[in-house]
Amino acid sequence: MLHKLLEEVLTGETSEHADALEKRAQALLSELGIAEAKSAEDGPYPPELAASVRRGLQIPEVASLRPRVFA
Fold first, then answer.
1. d(CA 65, CA 71)
2. What is the value of pTM for the model shown?
3. Closest to 50 (Cα-Cα) out of 8, 12, 21
4. Where are the domains of the chain?
């Protein structure tokens, strides 16, 4: 899930804004037939998935390579 969301951000298919990532995570979970959890402790939780993607993109080493990274 995280890999797919990261790929979609890098290709411009999905915005890196939290609300857009949460909506896309919800859609992907639905497509996979996975019930959305009510908290991160209960399973795939779109707000946490979105936050993880955003944190990953902000890692200094990742951020510095981002202009040259292709999905």
1. 12
2. 0.87
3. 21
4. 2-68
Residue 1 CA to residue 61 CA, distance in Å, equals: 22
Helices 18-32 and 2-11 sit at what angle, rounded to 10 degrees?
130
Closest CA to 8 of 55, 17, 63, 68: 17
Q: What is the rounded distance in angstroms from the CA atom of residue 33 to the CA atom of residue 42?
A: 16
Q: What token pair was written down for 63? A: 């951020």
**Dihedral sign for Cα atoms in the order 4, 14, 12, 40:** negative
37-70 pLDDT, tens per residue? 888 788 899 999 999 999 999 999 989 998 888 7
Phi, psi for 39 (deg, rounded to 5):
-155, 165
If we measure between CA atoms, which residue out of 57, 43, 51, 56 comes closest to residue 22? 51
